[in-house]
Amino acid sequence: MRVADLVPLLLTYLTFIAAAIIFSESYFVYRENRKALFIGVILGIIAMVSSSNPAHLYALEKFGSTLSLSLADITLVIGFYLLPVIYIAMYAWSRIRECSKHAKKN
Predict the structure, then answer these.
(1) 76 by DSSP, 3-state: which?
(2) CA distances from 86 to 55, 60, 78, 99, 106 (A)
């Protein structure tokens, strides 16, 4: 989308910065750091909210019009909706299981 000048240069830079932050965050999530796991939930929510802007919604309406836009829409849905929802659901499930284990011990 950057090549076709559909995305401003500033947003492209911010995307690279966000990707670097998420990449480093993933290391701590992998190590099961509690704060990092919770920050992942916050980042997932931010991803879903930030992608629900008029430009993204307009792009989703144009799904199927061109191959490049359709591929971008697919990555948008996967990266900004599907994966965050899966992460948040898995986080919630692990917290529920953890709480139920503590309840059984007491």
Answers:
(1) helix
(2) 24, 21, 10, 20, 31
Q: What is the pTM of this model?
A: 0.74
Interatomic CA distance for residues 16 and 67, integer angstroms: 23
What digits encode the pLDDT tens for the residues 10-60?
Answer: 877 887 888 888 888 888 888 988 899 999 999 899 888 988 888 888 888
Q: What does residue 103 show for φ and ψ, rounded to 5 degrees?
A: -70, -35
Cβ-contact 87, 40 below 8 angstroms: yes
Mention every residue, 6+ apart, whose C-beta is less than 8 A from residue 51. Answer: 76, 80, 81
- Give Cβ neighbours of residue 2 (< 8 Å, ≥ 6 apart): 9, 12
Residue found under tokens 């997932």: 44
The gap between the terminal CA atoms of the chain, to the nearest Å, is 55
